[in-house]
Design brief:
By secondary structure, the protein is an alpha+beta fold. The protein has four domains: about 5-90, Uridine Diphospho-n-acetylenolpyruvylglucosamine Reductase, domain 2 (2-Layer Sandwich), CATH 3.30.43.10; about 100-215, Uridine Diphospho-n-acetylenolpyruvylglucosamine Reductase, domain 3 (2-Layer Sandwich); about 220-325, 2-Layer Sandwich (Alpha-Beta Plaits), CATH 3.30.70.2190; about 330-415, Alpha-Beta Plaits (2-Layer Sandwich). The chain is about 35% helix and about 20% strand. Helix 13 packs antiparallel against helix 15 (about 390-405). The longest helix has 17 residues, at about 285-305. It is globular, with a radius of gyration of 22 Å. The protein starts with a helix and ends in a 14-residue tail after the last helix. Bound molecules: flavin-adenine dinucleotide. Flavin-adenine dinucleotide binds near residues 29, 30 and 74.
Amino acid sequence: MVTPEALEDIVGSDWVVTGKEQTAAYKTDATPFALMPEAAENIIVVKPADAQEVSEIMKLANREMTPVYVRGGGTGMAAAVIPTQDGIVLSMERFDKVEEVDRKNLMVVAQAGVTLADLLKAVEAENLLFPPHPGDEGAQVGGLVACNAGGSRAVKFGVIRNYVKGLEVVLPTGEIVTMGGKLLKNNTGLNLMELLVDSEGILGVITKVIFRLYPMFAGMATLVISYDDRHEAIDTVPEILQAGIIPLAIEYMDRDIVDLTAEYLNMTWPAAKGKAYLIIILTGANEDEVYFQAEKVVEVCQKHNAVDTLMTERREEQSAILKIRSEVQSAVSPNADSLDTAVPPAEIGNFMDEVDKIGEKFGVKIYVVGHAADGNLHHVLMKDVADRGLLEPIKDEIYEVAMRLGGAITAEHGIGKKSIYLLDRYTDERQKQIMRDIKKSFDPNNILNPGTAIVP
Ligand SMILES: Cc1cc2nc3c(=O)[nH]c(=O)nc-3n(C[C@H](O)[C@H](O)[C@H](O)COP(=O)(O)OP(=O)(O)OC[C@H]3O[C@@H](n4cnc5c(N)ncnc54)[C@H](O)[C@@H]3O)c2cc1C
């Protein structure tokens, strides 16, 4: 086992933390408490300043066979970051510089510990746009890549994977490698960079990221469409897309979850009517283009019996609406679990119906919020469900329905340590073995985030 003294020799004594109380904050994330695996007792937190120091730490840990857990913002929801064996938590908090906003290439180069909030600030100061917005802006750039985060704005531009163009990575054996670059096209051999995206901290330590950017939209508006019938809301979604309008986001929220979150944030939801809402964010090269899209969207919504339509172009009002949507996970916490299934977008209405039936069968209220155009729903099961011993049977039935409809057990939160049993249940043996083989070729001694994201 690596000692604190050996780590101090690499990073200096100010950047090594030991002791139960001092390390406690490095042992949790945003996973529902009841599902969080127990963290190990003896954790050393180390805070390197650059890739060279990370490399020395990894070489040492590999030699001593000491587990290393890379920690970003600690906002993950799958317990991926929890150190479950005695070892090292490698905190990326000192990698906090946006190195370059490259206007000509439309790229940003950021160290892995830059938070999403700081990345957005730097990019927007140059009137450029980084479109993805997974809920918590405390997430770090490296964590976003390691989790291939999605979020509400994936409809038009997709998930984080679509933005990653280059990475600097320290391998578990200590070598520093670069993958990709400021390139839009690159077919050089097998794409290892793509393997690092969504690798949940098991293949390498990401130290630097190059993201693609877009010009800031001159026009942006947010619509809140209210419905009395949830199915009418869902049926609207494909028709909007078929009408040739691709919004930045189409989010679905039940009234119950809106009220809960607005109250939690002490904010006011702008719509008074309705039991179900679509939040639609439209962008365009100018105001006229946005108005044109808005008219078409409202037409489709009214055809589906929307009871109210609100539109705002004011930045603060748009941010307030997005905030209420983004903070749902925090507002429903502590909950028993928040699922993250995906189904083909056209199946989303059927999926909701089937989950309603499961809720009725067990006599349980199942809240739902989701990325409606992506087919990605978050079903929230509150604590009383677990107290009644119904959590696992209900989840099992929801997963069965999702898989029957051609879905996936996780769309954006990942497997982490929380859902390995599901990966095991729903993946064939050959694919599980390939995943193990890939892990072994990156990390022969299984020191980097052991017990995460693959079936042992
Ligand atoms: C309120 C809330 C709302 C959210 N909403 C969404 C949403 O809408 N869509 C969505 O997709 N996600 C959502 N998330 C989850 C979010 O995407 C992830 O929490 C985020 O991507 C993780 O970043 P992090 O820096 O906090 O990583 P951490 O939680 O610190 O770590 C997560 C994993 O990434 C690894 N990791 C972190 N940094 C590095 C690195 N530099 N190199 C290698 N591995 C690393 C860790 O080892 C761990 O396995 C939400 C989370 C919260 C709390």
